[in-house]
Every structure is written in C-alpha cells, then in structure tokens.
C-alpha cells in the first residue's frame, strides 16, 4: 500500500509554469495537453515544503553560506545510502545550476572553436550552450537496435584522438533514451578520455530515477585523485524543484574545483547559496528516500501502462522500450513511414498533444518523440488517447 498519492490532481494555475503557459507560444495552438519539458505534475514531498516553510518563517533571506554541515551532511548521506559512494566535504561543491557547471567546465578546458564530443541523441540544452560558447559539437552517435542503445567505443576513441576535441559531455542516466551506463562502459569511457587528454563531464541529474531492475553507477565512484573528471547533479528533477535554481558538483580534482569556484565568485559574483534550497536539500536527502522509491514505482506503472497500450492498440505504428531510467518515454514512430515534421505537426493539430519532437535532441531526424510521464495515471491515459487519435486520423487520411 502506497504511503504517497502520486495520482493526486495538481494545478499550476497562476504559477507561470513553462509546461502549461509556455505551450501555446511554442507549439502554436491552444488547448494542447503538455507532456514535453522535463518537470513533474507531481507535488514535491511534504517534508520538503514544510522545511521550506519553516525557513520562510524566519523572514530573512540574506546572503547564505553553503559550506556547512547541513549541506555536506545530507549530500554525503544520500550518496552513501543510495549509491554506496563515499564522498568527503572537499569533493562536493555547490553551484548555481547543472548547465552552469557544464558550461564553465567546458570553457575552462577548451577554447572557442574546439570540439566537444556529445552522444547523439543528446539533451538539447547541451547543444544550446555549446553553440552559445562557440564550441564545435562533435557528434558520437549511440548505436541503436530495436530501441536499445549502446556506446560506440571505436568511434569515440577516434574522436578523442583528434587533438582539437578537448571535452566529452556525458549524460548518465541518458536523456532522452533513459540509458543507464554500466560500470564497465563508464570505465572504458574514462580510460579513453584519460589516454587522449579529453576532459570528462558527467551530467547525472536523472540519477535517482531507476527502474526496479537497474542500478545506477556514478562516475564519482570511478574517480581517482586529480582525475580530469567532474560530476554535476542536483535535486531539480528528483524532487521537482527546477524553479529553485541550484546544483552541486563532485570532483577529486582540486585545481578544477578552485577554478570553477573562482569563476563563479569573481566573474559572475554568484557564490552564495539559495537559502530555500539548503532547507530543501536537508529535508529531501534526510527524509525523502521512501518517497523517491515510491515515485519510481509509480513511474514504472506509468511506463507499463504505455507499453501495454502501444502493444494493444498501436503496435503497427509505434514502438517503445521501457527506459532504464528517467521519467521520459522515448517513442518511435518509424513504422509509420512518415516524415518527422509531418508526424510532429499531426500530434499537435490532430491529437492535441504537445510532446518533444525527437529531432531537437539530435543532428538529424530520428523518427521519435519524447513524452514526459511524471504525472498521474489519469493524465497518462488521456495522453495516450490523444496519440491514438493522431494515428487514427492519419490512417483515415491515408497518410500512414
Ligand atoms: C540531462 C539534464 N541536465 C540538466 C538539466 C537541467 O539542469 P539545470 O536546470 O540545473 O541546469 C536537465 C533538465 O531537463 C537535464 O535533462
């Protein structure tokens, strides 16, 4: 019997949420059911909101120090209890956001015009910030077979050998495919990077979402003293805190840590902590492990529902493999034999659903869309009906 109700109806009315209020400007239509940006239609656990309220009651939100036991302690305890990783205070550094750290680490380890290796498909904001920092995106496509993704080590090593490629930005677990990388895979990636003097950035923001049979392994576990490796993560996804900006990174490379801290203190003057998030981190990492476990069970149920729905009604047109992690369903419509742009338009115009088109995560069309399943089952059911309706209408019109 679940202690928490993940099917509770929620509202974002009046909150200026991108998921709802940002849908019409982006998709060009009203009345769409949104399943695109990666935040949840699930309330943050009460233990966290209560801790934030308590902090609010103090009424003073002046500049705040993150170097304290109420930050380090809960982070170390979470990593030990959930991933059996022993962290020490000096390995953990607070930073304004995950992508802030990715960009800063890229800037510190490459120059304008240098190559940064990214797997394809990739989290789309990596593409954005590399462009914004005048770095060259160097694609290393994952090998896909029947919706299973694998790392192309041969191609990767070839790319790492090129002296102009200076950094690898890895995503583990992987957005959008949900792939959880094995220890062996991670060790191989690390060895190749070290052999070729390529800096390794591991974005692990989706780490807490794992299907029951999967085990997340962090790059933090494979780090040795001084390694040119940084892990960046936060609580934004796990506890639905995306609008309360924060993150932290883990490294055993003192020089790198000092440089990033220097940059954010001296270049941007953003070296103080968000006071509300410190309260949230303490409550989340101390009291909300059970909530995360039950949330994962709920997500597993949503993925099962989608899998069964597709098998029962849409298997001629769609294919889907349950992701090993994340709350993102990566659904293939390759069987439809339709252009990507036509399908994405049909989902909006005929189905009334806003999902993320696969090509935004790639350098080419890939016959897929990404659907956020972090909602009540009822919302997922209505989303699947909209997808079904899209396919039926395309069939009726002889377009598939
Ligand atoms: C892989 C990945 N990294 C980072 C982020 C965002 O992190 P932040 O807002 O802290 O930059 C997301 C959000 O979707 C993500 O999927």
From TrEMBL:
Enzyme Commission number(s): 4.4.1.13
Signal peptide range: none
Cofactors named for this entry: pyridoxal 5'-phosphate
Alphabetical list of InterPro entries matching this protein: Aminotransferase_I/II_large, Class-II_PLP-Dep_Aminotrans, PyrdxlP-dep_Trfase, PyrdxlP-dep_Trfase_major, PyrdxlP-dep_Trfase_small
Highest taxon of source: Bacteria
Keywords, sorted A to Z: Lyase, Pyridoxal phosphate
UniProt domain Aminotransferase class I/classII large: residue ranges: 41-387
Pfam families the record matches: Aminotran_1_2
GO MF, any single term: cysteine-S-conjugate beta-lyase activity
CDD domains: AAT_like
PANTHER family, per database record: PROTEIN MALY
Assigned protein family: Belongs to the class-II pyridoxal-phosphate-dependent aminotransferase family. MalY/PatB cystathionine beta-lyase subfamily.
Protein name, entry field: cysteine-S-conjugate beta-lyase
UniProt organism field: Lacicoccus qingdaonensis
């Amino acid at each position: 019997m679940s202690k928490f109700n993940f099917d509770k109806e929620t509202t974002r009315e009046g909150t200026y949420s991108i998921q709802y209020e940002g849908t019409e400007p982006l998709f060009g239509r009203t009345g769409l059911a949104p399943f695109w940006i990666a935040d949840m239609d699930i309330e943050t656990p009460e233990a966290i909101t209560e801790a934030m309220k308590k902090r609010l009651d103090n009424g003073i939100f002046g500049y705040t120090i993150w170097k304290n036991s109420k930050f380090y302690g809960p982070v170390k305890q979470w990593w030990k209890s959930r991933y059996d990783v022993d962290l020490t205070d000096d390995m953990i550094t607070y930073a304004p956001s995950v992508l802030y750290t990715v960009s800063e680490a890229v800037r510190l380890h490459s120059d304008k015009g240098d190559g940064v290796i990214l797997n394809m498909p990739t989290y789309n904001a990596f593409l954005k910030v590399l462009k914004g920092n005048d770095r060259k995106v160097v694609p290393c496509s994952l090998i896909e077979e029947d919706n299973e993704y694998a790392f192309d080590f041969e191609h990767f090593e070839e790319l790492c050998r090129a002296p102009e490629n200076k950094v690898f930005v890895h995503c583990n677990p992987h957005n959008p495919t949900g792939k959880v990388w094995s220890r062996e895979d991670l060790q191989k990636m690390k060895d190749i990077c070290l052999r070729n003097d390529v800096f390794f950035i591991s974005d692990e923001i989706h780490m807490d979402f794992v299907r029951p049979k999967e085990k997340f392994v962090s790059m933090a576990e494979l780090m040795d003293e001084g390694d040119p490796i940084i892990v960046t993560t936060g609580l934004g996804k796990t506890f639905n805190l995306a609008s309360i900006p924060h993150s932290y990174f883990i490294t055993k490379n003192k020089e790198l840590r000092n440089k990033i801290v220097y940059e954010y203190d001296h270049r941007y003057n953003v070296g103080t902590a968000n006071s509300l998030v410190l309260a949230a981190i303490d409550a989340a990492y101390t009291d909300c492990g059970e909530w995360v476990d039950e949330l994962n069970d709920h997500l597993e149920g949503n993925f099962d529902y989608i899998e069964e729905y597709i098998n029962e009604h849409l298997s001629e047109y769609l294919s889907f493999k349950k992701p090993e992690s994340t709350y993102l369903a990566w659904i293939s419509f390759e069987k439809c034999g339709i252009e990507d742009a036509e399908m994405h338009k049909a989902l909006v115009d005929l189905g009334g659903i806003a999902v993320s088109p696969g090509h935004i995560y790639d350098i080419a069309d890939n016959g897929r869309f990404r659907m956020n399943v972090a909602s009540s089952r009822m919302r997922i059911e209505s989303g699947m009906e909209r997808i079904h309706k899209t396919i039926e209408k395309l069939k009726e019109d002889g377009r598939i």
